[in-house]
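Handoff note, outgoing to incoming analyst
You'll be picking up this chain. Sequence as last confirmed:
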Amino acid sequence: MSQQLHGRRVALDVGGRRIGLAVSDELGMVASPVRTVDIKRERLEGLIQAINQYEPVEIIIGMPTGMSGYEGPQANETRAFAGRLAEHIDVPITYWDERLTTFAADQALTESGYRTKRRKEMVDAVAASLILQSYLDSFR
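Most recent structure output, in case you need it:
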């Protein structure tokens, strides 16, 4: 995170069907889940529109890696997706380790009493906020 880049950051938890979206405050202190974008229904244009409303200075994309740190096929798909996104958005993209974020998000939502359907709708956005908070915390 460049000290020159003051403003909001957006994080994405990229999945095959859904993409979780989270945003930071202007100071880069706190990440908040925003929503989940159904990429098949809303397409890339819908995601870009959702991102642009926050006028981010940087996009953080969760990079799926195994526990050993190895990047598998899902990481390749995430990089390909980020490449397509970069063609339409003029904001720097940074990859960030997302190990166990979806699991942690699902666990937190379960412990908070969310039912299965509502939890499925929220888990990707909460995972994106965990990715973003981890990124923001790394600079403190």
